[in-house]
């Protein structure tokens, strides 16, 4: 038979699945000899059994009874013993932290009898009756199902009638009366008396904590945080200790290091004469932990000692909850603490310096998201006042702009050149134009998967969402929080990395980390810590990192950021601007000679582009993708053109001949689904001369760079391949052109020819395609679009947030690669491509190349490199390093 | 060492890979004891070796020499023997028939000496010199590379100077002079004499036939017919026999049955005093084979006997080429003969009746394409004159319309209600509007993979292409063939099933086969034969056949055609017509109650649709797909709306408020790629009430049918599923609604819930999806679109014909399923779906369900049923039967 109950001393930190995080760490501390009030933990297995059958599993009651006896024996008194009651707390504790989502019941064991015993032993009538009243209130609502508002109303009524400003002003007599009121209330509401049997209190409390796993709040939270519903919670039963027994008592929270900066100094909050709950509730102002040195030097010293013990044991930042009961220090909880990105780097570096962890472990403790966060400029918080409001940091960066409260106003002001922040209760697809127009989005509702958050991240806009204190009034064009009102047009500052919003224009501070990547300048400990992590990552990673760059400037930046080449150089950007009219001429050409003339005019311009990029990446590979988008993208919008011509006609003006010609071409080339149309290699195979012109431009650029003494390493990449036959035909044309240029110039030009794998069919027939390819590059944007059958542009705003909310996605498949679907195609293509062509070089150049979770996948899938935007290169380097460490997950312990 | 040469008696009919079709069948006839002039075959392997190295493989010359000796010994004279020369023919013969694409050289062995011997033994100076002149002409052009036009010029010049209307009017003296002229011509052109060594003639002729495999015509033909370039040709060397030695000689072609009707009567053509070449060239008019009975009763009787022997041996229709040399009958070639669809059925049925083949074999001898062809009405050819022109039958059916020569005229006339036939040299994507507007397309260039053919088939339009005799003059707006000119507006009749075009309006004859399927009426032997084949197919097939039908009428027709249920009932058609404004109201609804009102109005209308369909399919499954297309498809076109509003504004008219409201909605809902947008299950999950309304309509229809005593078997199918979570959510809503209706009506409604598998991700995660699905139905149209990343509507016209021409496709993947890519996903989904959910029912409802080749694939892939349009149901039944026969390919022996 399963063991359902563990004494603290029986467990350890690795048993969180069974004992929950809280239970496992209490067990660990007990084993370490730290001062933990004794207790035991009922396992998640017992909870699961209870939830499955609706009743406690066989044997559980006996086990609990046996452990209670042990507890009573060690305490020298029994649960609810009338003259000197042992009191217990019953708390939930799941595998993953679900703060405040499940139930807690304190002071179990108090009855009409034992409350008097407690009064005597504690020496405080008020304390005893207040504890009893709390038990009845918690038990009544949690276990017996009485509406908590009824208790609140009763205590409010009492305070009013007694003229008491707060609970502390109610005396023992008041509380005695309140207990009576509460008990009557329960009887009236449930037809049942508050139980006077301490064992019944305990049994029913444990049962209530089990049941709270399936409470609405908890279910909603798990759905949002993607915690499986099947885990269940453990229940910790522990002897009560009291921090509210006078000025020699108190409660607090302490960190082994400052979780904001990582600085190694005592850090935390303390509240004299209070329980832990009071610290969290913020009823009175806490004092800094350092004040405890003055208030209770012995406890302070002990606490410091325990914190060092914990950090040495856990080899990481820990936080603890502690209580001092009449001069005796008790530790009630510990865990590896959450921290900011800055602290993550600082702590990892310091622990490594101290020899507590290895360089690999230090690398595992930081993440790509941390680096990314540190590369943004931040607000100079010293120069601004308090936050106006706080919300969920949903899309990083810092932005300043005038507050606007609807989409139309956002568009109007942005068109006039003003920077705006769109403030909404929540956004819908209708807000899309406003989101495009603004610098940042601020909402009062919704989490990281809300419409605002998803769309803003997709656009790279700053976003803070779910600022619950914010009251948005679009009718009055204003919003309010904490008594401050922002009217339309007033400037606010939004920090999407921290979730903080300031009134007014907060000054920006450049990122020292960004400066380091740009210039190599080492300014301070944080930058040193980042540099060390990057070095370690580079030392251990097997995955190469390249950048997607289309200009010499981007190429140069990418190189400074550590890119080992260009994985994707898009030629279509070279067809825009002034050159658009040449492209237009090529498209409209009626004769071959017209077409040739237009292509000839484009050739030298493209050549110069390539010369610049090859120079910036001298000695490193530059993968140039042949023109991908449909040609009609270079022509004006069809509806606009039609409206312009119709309007001219209606006004009796002669329509522009050029417009008319364009409209004919646009109508002819119109596609209902351009994403699925004449683009990529298809275009190259039907538009005569287009491939040859581009390849000639590349080849002549190589010649020019070679003549200048450079080491140009151009590679030609063919987009949108479906079949090996397409690639074979293009390859023949490429090789013919390279030969032509080589012969004409006398300089040998050889460029590897490879292909994008961005359509399911290419992945499914990769074995055949590999026979004609010198490299593969996964275009995971298009591969995601076709595998799922939706286009990012069309659907992200339309239904992604609904899908995230409903749990259909855990994360947008455009942010993080979908391992089951798209990832399976990647694995098929890698395996079959390599089998057919040993040594085939394989990379990825979709946006996933810069996403931490996806980088880990690509490492596991055996790719040679990832390619991402220049700014994501450090992220990719770091995560490629972490992926190479055995068993490191993307967000370890965070 | 390989054996490169086979005596006829050494081979047999199964050796076509090595001996070519001709060589293998000559061998078979020799072994059967039929009168075949002796000879031997040089293998395709020798040809491949020659083509690879440019020289004859070692040993070939010796083998040929040895076989020549045998031949000479049996003939009692030697090759080119001066006094009585043995003459040989050298002919190509590949695995697959390539008529006229490679070289033939006759009369090998004639020299300046032996021509005189031949004159003496044949008793005809003219015959001998004409034979010699033919040899020099064929050898000169084929082997020595002289331009054939030079020989033609010389003979024309001679005829002119002699006043001879044709070759027959040249006498022996003329031909002796012509031989001299020819020899001089060769000497002048090549610097070499026509070889007087018969062995050299033979060696060089064989070499020339080898080389002709890679001639331009042959290469082009193979590309068009998808015959691999690697096969090579065999070469048959055979003793010459002569049908041109007087009135007791002649040549002809004979069939064991009439290849047009299948009637069992002697059928063929005969030409007295002629070689086989003359029959084919049509220099003189042939007589019907039956005339031979009068001309040469002995040979006629022998021939009849041989034909019966051949048919009994081959157990199929055979055709032969024969020559009678001075009263002696020789068979020169045989093969299983080509036949019309009608003949295919008739012959198969008769051979089975005769016990020559089994019912299974009879089934294997006919095809779905045959049935499909017989279901179209045809022109009453008896009522019209001769064909105006013939081309390649590219898309079946019969159409009549006014000839037009450009796209604009086609559109103009069609808009005025006229039926038109678009006549072009060839079509391009620019002709698309004209192709949409016309009844049929006729082109003078291009084959079955030309743009016209591909697009017309995609649209289901009649098409004849590659009518090479047709001269199209779009400038003059007319076309000419065989001296007849069709001016713009003149009516022509196009038969896309036979490739024949008639001037004027040919009367149409209904199809008896169609009448049989519609009514069960058995009118004649053809219908009986079709009915027998269908019965056999139904008896042996394991694949079920359902229909795609959206109306009670279609459902009833499908049932008459043999459908065993509806595999796809599209609800979107139920949202059109009068109901469009209700759908519009639902889309434009500003409040929940407006939306509910619109949905409530749609409900009874949909319910009645379902009642009708369930009644028509009573007792059989009806799979109803929830609404699939994006909602904006029910709103007006965006550009049209914008132009209308702009025009109104420019004219100073107040814009229509409704139009303005519509434009806002259309703009809001606009998608760049609607195929990849908010449609299918996505729509159901974000548009409140839409799924419930549809399911309620189905459920209430089931209740109504049950109350009426019917046996309704509705199934609910969810479109565009990507993940199991989507299906789970919809399923919950469906089941809730079914329960509601069951409870409200007191009638239990249970509908299996299944899903389309039409996105790569669904196929890749089919194992998980199967856990929530009671059936799968492959939507191979969408699956092809997303797997390949192109939309049929957008690309078929733009580049499919180019892709087919370049050999990238063998056939459009929308016509026949792409086994490598899409087919692999189908296999994955079947295997993993069934593994997760044993007994999962799996079908296909894309258009591939009615394509013969694809039906075979679905059978092999283990599907339970295919579903196709009602008119393709007989095709699918027949091919499902053929697929169940071991080793039957789609087009066996055709």
Roughly how many Å apart are the termini of chain A?
Answer: 35 Å
Q: How many β-strand runs of chain A?
A: 31
Give me the Rg of chain A, rounded. Answer: 33 Å
Biggest sheet of chain A, strands in spatial order? 12-22-21-14-15-16-17-13
Structural class of chain A: alpha/beta
Mean pLDDT figure of chain A: 92
Helix content of chain A: 40-55%
For the report, how would you describe the main beta sheet of chain A? 8 strands, mixed
- Assembly type of the shown chains? homodimer
Q: Tell me which protein chains meet in the greatest interface and how many residues each side has.
A: A-B, 60 and 60 residues
Proportion in β-strands of chain A: 15-25%
Q: What spatial form of chain A do the alpha-carbon principal axes imply?
A: elongated
Low-confidence stretches of chain A: none
Number of H- or I-type helical stretches of chain A: 35
Molecular structure report:
The structure is a homodimer of 894-residue chains. The first copy, chain A, has 894 residues and is an alpha/beta fold. Helix content of chain A is 46%, strand content 16%. Chain A has 35 helices and 31 strands. In chain A, the strands form 6 sheets. Chain A has an 8-stranded mixed β-sheet with strand order 12-22-21-14-15-16-17-13. An 8-stranded parallel beta barrel of chain A has the order 24-25-26-27-28-29-30-31, surrounded by 6 helices. The first copy, chain A, has a 5-stranded antiparallel β-sheet with strand order 1-2-5-3-4. In chain A, β27 (713-718), α28 and β28 (753-757) form a beta-alpha-beta unit. Chain A is elongated and about 105 Å long.
């Amino acid at each position: 038979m399963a063991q359902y109950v563990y004494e603290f001393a029986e467990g350890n930190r690795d048993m969180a699945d069974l004992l929950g995080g809280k239970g496992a760490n209490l067990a660990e501390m007990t084993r370490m000899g730290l001062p933990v009030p004794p207790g035991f933990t009922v396992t998640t297995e017992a909870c699961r059994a209870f939830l499955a059958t609706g009743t406690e599993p066989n044997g559980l009651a006996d086990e609990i009874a046996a452990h209670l006896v042990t507890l009573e024996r060690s305490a020298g008194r029994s649960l609810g013993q009338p003259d000197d009651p042992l009191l217990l707390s019953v708390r939930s504790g799941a595998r993953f932290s679900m703060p405040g989502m499940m139930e807690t019941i304190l002071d179990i064991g108090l009855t009409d009898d034992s409350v008097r015993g407690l009064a005597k032993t504690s020496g405080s009538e008020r304390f005893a009756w207040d504890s009893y009243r709390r038990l009845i209130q918690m038990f009544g609502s949690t276990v017996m199902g009485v509406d908590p508002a009824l208790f609140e109303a009763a205590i409010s009524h009492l305070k009013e009638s007694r003229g008491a400003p707060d609970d502390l002003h109610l005396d023992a007599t008041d509380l005695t009366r309140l207990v009576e009121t509460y008990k009557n209330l329960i009887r009236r509401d449930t037809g049942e008396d508050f139980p006077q049997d301490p064992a019944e209190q305990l049994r029913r409390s444990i049962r209530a904590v089990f049941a709270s796993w399936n409470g609405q709040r908890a279910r909603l939270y798990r759905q949002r945080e993607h915690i499986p519903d099947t885990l269940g919670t453990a229940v910790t039963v522990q002897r009560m200790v009291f921090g509210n027994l006078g000025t020699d008592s108190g409660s607090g929270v302490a960190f082994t290091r400052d979780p904001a900066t990582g600085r190694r100094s005592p850090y935390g909050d303390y509240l004299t004469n209070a329980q832990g709950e009071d610290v969290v509730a913020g009823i009175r102002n806490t004092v800094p932990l350092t004040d405890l040195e003055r208030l209770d030097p012995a406890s302070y010293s002990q606490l410091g000692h325990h914190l060092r013990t914990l950090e040495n044991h856990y080899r990481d930042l820990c936080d603890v909850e502690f209580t001092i009961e009449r001069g005796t220090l008790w530790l009630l909880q510990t865990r590896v603490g959450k921290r900011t990105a800055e602290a993550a780097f600082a702590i990892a570096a310091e622990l490594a310096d101290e020899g507590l962890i290895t360089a690999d472990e230090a690398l595992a403790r930081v993440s790509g998201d941390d680096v990314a966060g540190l590369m943004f400029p931040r607000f100079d918080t010293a120069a601004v006042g308090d936050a106006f409001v706080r919300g969920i940091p949903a899309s990083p960066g810092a932005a300043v702009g005038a507050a606007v409260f609807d989409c139309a106003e956002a568009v109007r002001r942005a068109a006039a050149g003003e920077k705006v922040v769109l403030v909404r209760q929540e956004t819908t697809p209708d807000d899309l134009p406003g989101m495009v127009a603004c610098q940042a989005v601020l909402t009062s509702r919704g989490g990281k998967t809300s419409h605002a958050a998803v769309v803003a991240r997709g656009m790279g806009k700053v976003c803070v969402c779910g600022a619950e204190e914010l009251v948005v009034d679009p009718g009055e064009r204003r919003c309010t929080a904490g008594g401050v009102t922002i009217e339309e047009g007033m400037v606010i500052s939004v920090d999407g990395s921290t979730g903080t919003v300031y009134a007014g224009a907060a000054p920006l501070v450049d990122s020292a980390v960004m400066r380091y990547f740009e210039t190599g300048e080492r300014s301070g400990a944080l930058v040193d810590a980042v540099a060390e992590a990057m070095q370690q990552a580079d030392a251990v990673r097997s995955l190469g990192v390249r950048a997607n760059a289309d200009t010499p400037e981007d190429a140069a930046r990418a190189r400074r950021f550590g890119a080992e080449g260009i994985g994707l150089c898009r030629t279509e950007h070279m067809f825009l601007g002034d050159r658009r009219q040449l492209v237009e001429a090529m498209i409209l050409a009626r004769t071959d000679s017209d077409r040739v003339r237009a292509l000839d005019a484009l050739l030298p311009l493209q050549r110069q582009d390539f010369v610049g990029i090859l120079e910036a990446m001298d000695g490193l590979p530059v993968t140039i993708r042949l023109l991908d988008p449909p040609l009609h993208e270079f022509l004006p919008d069809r509806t606009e053109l039609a409206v312009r011509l119709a309007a001219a006609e209606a006004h009796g003006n002669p329509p522009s001949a050029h417009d008319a010609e364009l409209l004919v071409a646009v109508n002819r080339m119109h596609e209902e689904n351009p994403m699925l149309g004449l683009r990529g290699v298809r275009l190259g195979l039907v538009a005569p001369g287009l491939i040859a012109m581009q390849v000639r431009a590349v080849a002549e650029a190589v010649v020019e760079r070679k003549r200048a003494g450079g080491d140009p390493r151009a590679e030609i990449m063919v987009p949108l391949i479906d079949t090996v036959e397409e690639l074979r035909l293009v390859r023949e044309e490429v090789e013919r052109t390279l030969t032509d240029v080589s012969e004409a110039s006398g300089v040998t030009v050889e460029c590897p020819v490879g292909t994008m794998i961005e359509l399911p069919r290419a992945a499914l027939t990769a074995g055949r395609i590999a026979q004609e390819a010198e490299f593969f590059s996964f275009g995971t944007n298009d591969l995601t679009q076709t595998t799922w059958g939706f286009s990012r542009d069309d659907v992200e705003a339309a239904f992604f947030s609904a899908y995230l909310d409903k749990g259909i996605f855990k994360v947008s498949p455009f942010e993080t690669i979908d391992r089951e679907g798209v990832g399976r195609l990647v694995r098929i293509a890698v395996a079959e491509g390599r089998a057919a062509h040993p040594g085939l070089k394989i990379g990825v150049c979709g946006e996933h190349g810069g996403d931490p979770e996806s980088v880990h996948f690509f490492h596991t899938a055996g790719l040679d490199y990832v390619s991402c935007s220049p700014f994501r290169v450090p992220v990719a380097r770091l995560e490629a390093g972490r992926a190479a460490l055995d068993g490191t997950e993307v967000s370890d312990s965070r």
